[in-house]
């Protein structure tokens, strides 16, 4: 995965080859053989050559014969710079897509699992070898989960035993405090000599450089993400910092959605439970009224047909609205799972309702209960 417009990036190979010719010509015109693709990035190499060549033209340090060649080289350099800028923009868009896809892997997980899985996603879907997620509460910074690529597990770079019980003070970590207060990511190029870092965790982790980003929810920082590439020759750069920050932003959105979904599910369960309890009470009152009405109106020698009708009435009076819904699905031969999907409730809730229906109707089997329902349906017609 590309990380920067360095000279080793594969997608810049053709541009580097073209730039080499232009920079060689510029070096000959300036009588300076040090001009070449030698800066940290291709963009910087082209900028340096363009500025020096333009200065030479302005100052009149080129011969009349070389002025035309110098102008052509400047045009070539400008064209290459445009192509590099375009390639960089395409790369950044691709990176954002990769980060979005990485964070999307966390969707659908419960809130706790999202927090536990985030460091692993950082290391398996982005160019990092180690990642840590921490909780922030007040003035405390508490590491929660550390993930290392398999080759680092059990190595001196694995400081899991330290973070398992670590509760750190933000007062001893000005850099992390700045992340919390300013809500901006950071690239720490030299943690040991940086006065803002927490020296104990820097020492324990043996990090030579790291990037960090805040995790925000409901307008405040609730956690931090740290990542690095210990032992790698690839130096962390601003692109790594921005990539982690983008992931942290999407992570916060996914986490908030999971928390909201969890709360809605709990609220829905409580409302359903309250509704069923209320409906049961109303049905009991209705049943009592029906029984009193039958006793007052029915003659002593009631016929068998009337007994059947009373049986139908009993089904309506002893079952709750939800239980009657369950019974109607039972009559179609539906399974518990199919009923659960149709009524958008859990299969366990369906089982409880089925058990209650059988008990209230004194039906030994689901088929017997279904038969009673079918009898009621025929009489209703």
Task: Give an overview of the whole structure.
The chain has 381 residues and is an alpha+beta fold. The protein is built from 13 helices and six strands. It folds into three domains: 10-103, no CATH class; 124-260, 2-Layer Sandwich (Beta-Lactamase), CATH 3.30.450.40; 298-380, Response regulator (Rossmann fold), CATH 3.40.50. It has helices spanning 13-29, 42-59, 64-104, 111-125, 160-163, 174-182, 199-205, 238-297, 304-318, 321-330, 336-343, 347-360, 366-380, and strands spanning 130-137, 140-148, 168-169, 186-188, 210-217, 220-228. A hairpin with a 2-residue loop joins strand 1 and strand 2 (140-148). Helix 1 runs parallel beside helix 2 (42-59). The radius of gyration is 36 Å and the shape is elongated.
